[in-house]
Write a structure and sequence with these properties.
alpha+beta; 5-stranded antiparallel sheet
């Protein structure tokens, strides 16, 4: 039993290491825009796509992500400034996520009662 627990702990540690490695390889495109929105695409390493929870995928096509909420896409390691919306999926390339936000978006001012640390900095603690 102790061997199984040790193996599980080692496996979890290895999965966490791989996840961090894959997150570091996420590619963020330059921003581009039209009259209303600015856009960018985010390319996930294909290995990271395999680690995403099954319920993040479309029920109609298990190989394609559904539109993710901000909490969900941040939860899989995507880091962007505020205001971005995952607005489209591209079935032929499910590891490419398309984002947009209003061209005139201004982030709300935040009260920093917690020492002024950003979301990303708090995540890395």
């Amino acid at each position: 039993m102790a061997t199984t627990q040790a193996q599980n702990a080692a496996h979890q540690k290895e999965m966490a290491r791989k996840l961090e490695e894959y997150i570091e390889k996420i590619h963020y495109s330059d921003r581009y825009s039209d009259d209303f929105y600015e856009y960018r695409h985010v390319i996930l390493p294909k290995q990271l796509l395999k680690m995403i929870p099954k319920d993040y995928f479309s029920p109609e096509d298990a190989g394609t992500l559904r539109l993710l909420s901000e909490q969900e896409w941040r939860g899989i390691g995507i880091t962007q400034s505020l205001g971005w919306e995952h607005y489209e999926v591209h079935a032929p390339e499910p590891h490419v996520l398309l984002f947009r936000r209003a061209k005139d978006f201004v982030a709300p001012t935040q009260q920093t009662g917690g020492g002024g640390r950003s979301f990303a900095a708090n995540r890395r603690k």
